[in-house]
């Protein structure tokens, strides 16, 4: 009787544990992704190294561009010359 109960409950427990792991992994990947618009900056000139251009979705694989320039995000928003993170779009 004990063996029959074990043989019935064990597969259900494994499936439940697998489903819980799959859902938690999916939730982590969604919460870790950056969504929303990010200000895009172009490397315009030495005097103005980070000129604000347009907002980029920062999703996809294509480079986000404006007026023929690739756009970048600032690692530190308070910095005036640190825009080195490439932005993408769909």
Verbal overview:
- The protein is an alpha+beta fold and 90 residues long.
- The chain has 2 domains: 33 residues; 52 residues, no CATH class.
- It is 34% helix and 29% strand.
- The chain is built from 1 helix and 8 strands.
- The strands form 4 sheets. The chain has a two-stranded antiparallel ribbon with strand order 1-2. Strands 3-8 form a two-stranded antiparallel ribbon. Strands 4-5 form a two-stranded antiparallel ribbon.
- Strand 4 and strand 5 form a beta hairpin.
- The longest helix has 31 residues.
- It is rod-shaped, with a radius of gyration of 24 Å.
- The termini are far apart.
Topology:
Elements: H1 2-32, E1 38-42, E2 51-56, E3 62-63, E4 65-66, E5 69-70, E6 72-74, E7 83-86, E8 88-89
Antiparallel strand pairs: 1-2, 3-8, 4-5, 6-7
Signal peptide: 1-27
Keywords: Signal
Protein name: NVEALA protein
Characteristics:
signal; 90 residues; 8 strands; alpha+beta; NVEALA protein; 1 helix; two-stranded antiparallel sheet; 2 domains; two-stranded antiparallel ribbon; single chain
Radius of gyration in whole Å, from Cα? 24 Å
Mean pLDDT: 79
Question: What's the helical proportion of residues?
Answer: 25-40%
Largest sheet: 2 strands, antiparallel
Order of helices and strands: HEEEEEEEE
DSSP strand count: 8
**Strands across the major sheet, in which order?**
1-2
**Low-pLDDT segments, ≥5 res:** 29-33
Protein name: NVEALA protein
Signal peptide: 1-27
Organism: Flavobacterium noncentrifugens
Keywords: Signal
